Amino acid sequence: MRAKTATASRSRPNAAAPLHLVFVPFLARSHFAPLAAAAAAAATCGSNGTTSAVIITTPHFAALAPSSVLVRLVPLHFPGGHADFSLLPDEASAAAFFAAAEDALAPALVETILANTYRPVAVVSDAVLHWAPRVARRCGVPHVTFHTIGAFAAASMVAIHLHGPEALSDPAFGPGGGFPIPVKLRSAHVNEEALAHLPLFRAAEAESYAVAFNSFSALEADFAEYYRTVDGPSKKVFLVGPRRPGTPRSEAAAAAGAERDPILRWLDGQAAGSVVYACFGSTCGLTVGQLSELGAGLRASGVPFLWVIPTPTEGIGMEERAYSGHGMVVAGRWAPQAEILAHRAVVGFVSHCGWNSVLDAVCAGVPLATWPLRAEQFLNEAFLVDVLRVGVRVREVASRADVEAVVPADAVATAVGRLMGNGEGEAAARRARVRELGVAARAAVAEGGSSSSDWARLVGELKALHGHGSRVTVMH
Questions:
Q1: Which whole number is the average pLDDT over 13-17?
Q2: How far is CA 71 from the centre of its chain?
Q3: Residue 155 in contact with residue 174, Cβ under 8 Å?
Q4: Known catalytic residues?
């Protein structure tokens, strides 16, 4: 896909046909889920003749796609058979995986566009797939860059990038250049690898017609506006979330006709507002020693807890065990996180601050104990704790060494206590603030809401771009 080019003719599409959206997620579960959810929303709009959708992905991720969306399968050829970037072993090359993903996805994107010349087409791809805007442009169709991180995190990275590398030498610094709210960050909070690649991603994004964030106006409007205007007023930015994944088709098939999930049955037996939920994303990422301290801290807190570890982790096998009403541990399997957080029993969430988990918590109106591990998660923590004031920090991270240090059980227990109500006035205020955001999140995606309106406007603009036939350059 990175060799030669050829030309082909794209006929004038039927303007009355629904806009066909081709979604191209990156091959990592945390990236795949929000784009798949957006594709499901687009497929649902097909019932009123507005849009249709297809996802281009590999067999591994097809099992995670919503059953309502068509999937075009492509093989991924990567040494060791690794299929998910999130689960790559340390010795595997991230750059080689990105290259393999491009080799798999890019030709299929060209073929899918050219197979739909009779109807208007637009491409929606993950922001890290920097080649996708170029492919869409050469095929004569518009492109939308979809960010799977929040507008605050994206705006912070751009502000830090523009602030200059000298900012990283300061013990503490804040995004400058008219950033909407003063926020103090430390160099340890910044993903240096992502910062190094930011010029590449920003140059690719400049070729896109628009940028979409999986967020909503009441949550991040100021930061989306900063992102829109930081390079001048021409960038189009849409807030189209929260787009949250439903049950994967593999899990939906397994659950068809099955009894209520044992996790939810256990929660049914707990008092309202009594349980803290702990989960660190689909890949966990905690050491065996840290898992031991986390478990000890949850037990020492005296609060009923639900602890989910979705993927097999060293030292912990498949497990589903309740501890005489005090706690439940579930390891090695998928769990319905959105349903868990929405359950009447759950009143707090110990989280790694991945953006998908942040949105799940906000939508459910549940405050968080923040424990970021990598990537933009430290920026999300600053957003939750310092900007929104709906979270409490489990630990303070002032240096890289603090990121690797084991958090002791007593610190975990203390954070859970603060989250659940020690210092009741502060805890009640956090709960009130996040519940207001939950109401706003649901309103945003309802008919006539801010995100629904942004989505409708984006679709209308993309379809309007297909008023003329075009000559296409196709990459082979």
A1: 69
A2: 20
A3: no
A4: 31, 126
